[in-house]
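pasting input
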Amino acid sequence: MLSSMKEGCHDPKTKQTQLLKPGRRTKASGVFHNLQEMQHCASLVTKVFIQRDYSEGTVCRFQTKFPSELNIRIERTLLEETVKTLNSYYMEAEKIGGQSYMEGCLACATAYIVFLCMETRYEKVLKKISGYIQEQNEKIYAPRGLLLTDPVERGMRVLEVSIFEDQGSAGSSPSSTLSSDSSAR
Amino acid sequence: MKSCDSQQTDLQAVPTPAPIPPPHAASRGPRGARRKWEVFPGKNRFYCGGRIMAAQQSGVLPLTLGLILVTTGLFFIFDCPFLVKHLSSCVPAVGAVLFVFVFITLLQTSFSDPGILPRATPEEAADVERQIDSSGDSSYGPPPRTREVVINQQVVKLKYCFTCKMFRPPRTSHCSLCDNCVERFDHHCPWVGNCVGKRNYRFFYTFIVSLSFLTSFIFSCVSTHLAMRAQDGRGLVSALQESPGSAVELVICFFSVWSILGLSGFHTYLVASNLTTNEDIKGSWSGKSGDVASNPFSHRNVFVNCGSVLCTPLPPSLIDRRGFLPEEEEPAQTCCTDVQLPASANNTQRKVCSQGRKGLLESAAPSPLQSTSCPQGEPQTVPPGPRRPSPADSEPTRQASNGCRAQHSAGSQGNASSARHSHHKSRMKKHKEAALSISNPTSHGPVAPTCPDSVPTSRGTSSTQA
């Protein structure tokens, strides 16, 4: 997905601005109407990583600390809400309770063959999480030129937020954003 | 939108350099994409299209399998007929159930993902490097490669893994035999031929517990059988002569039952206190300098600890072996294979490739890296058999670490050659070209030059800890 964004509008950049100038000029920097539009016509500026929060042990939690690079792009409360919902999903996946004890004992009694036949609870929750992230990307993040990557694709180490810039917008503010991002790199 | 789409199709119509096809095309997906297991950077072997994985060296797994099969086979052939006739018919039934348990859990332990953490993507690695550089004070030498977190009111140090380019989560350790970071790393078991970590610890525990039941069951059955034969007035020697298989079983079971029972007891203690073998050996929570540092991961209740180790929902494999590589990986990958290998991506050459990389890092900073990768290596080469529950085993670990050092020095001598240096340079160039591609596993280039500077400091501290 990211690579198509990178390659899709990289080379014919000048051509694109010539053809699409009227439409693109009216757009504010980094505002896209939908995920597909962003995928086709944006270039990746930088990636911000939200790290894991280990204060409660090895359970999967992400820090709710707001990265400063996203200050201009998205409201703090929206991102915090997303991270908190993800944390609650992970907590549900890893919960130890009566049900997990029963499942563990049953699995042990069958020499864990059930793991080959059935989908585990964790996998079911991960599917819910990827659906949630997809929905959040479409509704909240893509219109702001951002993209969340499912943590499971990064080994559950980080929540990756990719920042995209509209290819066509060459005004002063986007370029200053670009230069500040590149200097941060 | 329409013009944007048409321009994209124009771009797709531009011919890209045709990638050199790898030799085996059995696992080709749509549009010839390769699967991720084919480019996995660790030292693992994959079978059945990535569904089954094992460590590079199978260790003594064939011996383990052989011993179990031979002993159980002899039991069914020599002892069961007699015992069914003279004792009870549920003897072979119990034996069969135990054998099936042992066999299945052994295979699951050996061939499943122990909880390998995939290596950091280049962007992640760069982000971590940036954070390290910004947090350190450059006037006092290289920045520290440790991070401290507070877990349950206790300070836990997270170490930086130079191979995987990330700060290891708590309880994660890098296995040098498999060249992977493994979550909740327990030990690398040569008997099972795989690491034991978060995902397969329950299989391993069930394996050793059921094996201890099986060995004690066979031992007691064989003893009963021989005693009953000898009681008929003919003596023990004639009983052994009549049933020679029983003699073999007796010897095998006698020597293995003590070690297996001891091991099961030790791991039961570990499960009840939510510890890993690695932490127990290193004494991570045993309280240094008079400060009582208890295990921050323990729930202070034996049953809750057991439940949290054995009964949590099984976490998924994070390495996504069967997933397809994104297609823009192909040119970079094949360029890499052009440079490093004779256009082949099979396992042995990948092993050489990964050893070459390791050889580069090791040759750049020889002694600190060798001496301090051993703390992870120590529990791996100690066989679980003769291990006693007390952690104060200095001799076996010293022997193990000597063996470990020999292994590392052999590896670095064999692999640090000028050819590797030229591969390294071209790899660095490729990394810059493919900077924004997702998880290119061969891009170790940019960070390697910084390693020799920072390795001695942080590795030095970890060696003193060990």
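fyi The mean pLDDT of chain A is 75.
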